[in-house]
Amino acid sequence: MKSVKHLLDTKQVIIISVPENISVLDALKVMTEKNISAVLVMENEQLRGIFTERDYARKIILQGKSSKDTLIKEAMTANPITIKFSDSIDHCMELMTDKHIRHLPVVESGEVKGMVSIGDVVKFIIADQKQTISQLESYISG
């Protein structure tokens, strides 16, 4: 069974976060600069929430709020669903599908170790399936 640890071993892990007291506009600037659609909200190395493009659309734009005047802690999703290294890739897919989310912070012993996106999961599954097919082809023709 492939785990979150296996997936993280295949990608460069960079934790991008913003503090709770930053404005939504400044968080969006970070997201744009890093070309990401979600950012972790952390205070003193502790995960407080996650802010996504969906949060922006639903909690700022559709509510008529100002990105410049609203703090990220007012728009973030607090206490986000998290995963551990030992969780299976199938479990991640189930969580993302059932909860309609696209990002899962990886937390081990209270410490953020990375983030897994739906794109990461799909790419990992495709690569794993290609490897399995290649092994089966070698076995059949061998």
TrEMBL record:
Keywords: CBS domain
The protein's name: CBS domain-containing protein
InterPro entries: CBS_dom, CBS_dom_sf, CBSX3_CBS_dom, Diverse_CBS-Domain
Top-rank lineage group of the source organism: Bacteria
Pfam families, sorted: CBS (PF00571)
Family matches, as CDD domains: CBS_pair_bac_euk
Domain CBS, chain residue ranges per copy: 9-67, 76-132
